[in-house]
Amino acid sequence: DLVDLIHANNMRSAVAISPSTPSSAISDSLGQKVDMLLVMTVVPGKGGQKFMPECVVKVAELRKRFPDKDIQVEVESDPERSAAALGRVRYPPPQFLSLSLFFIVS
Fold it and tell me: pTM higher than 0.85 for the full model?
C-alpha cells in the first residue's frame, strides 16, 4: 500500500486531519502504521485564520489511542498568532507546526 511504498523509499509517512474531520476517521491500523499524525486547527487553504481551540481535544483523543505516536498540531500560518494560540492549548503534543503549504516532492 501507499504507506509501505513511502517507507520503502526511506521517507516518513503522515496522516493529517482537518478541523471538520473527527479523530475517529483515523483507523487503528492506519494510525499504527504511519510515522506521524497531524491535527490541523485551521481550515486548509485559507490564510489569516484564527486558532480553533475545539480541535485540540482531537490531540488528547489521538494521544490516548496512540500513546507512542508522533502527534503534531498545525496551529496557524501567522507566527505571532501561533505563539498566542500555544498558550491556550490544554493537551500539548510533543511538537507544534506552523504551516501555510503542504506539498509532495516526487
Answer: no
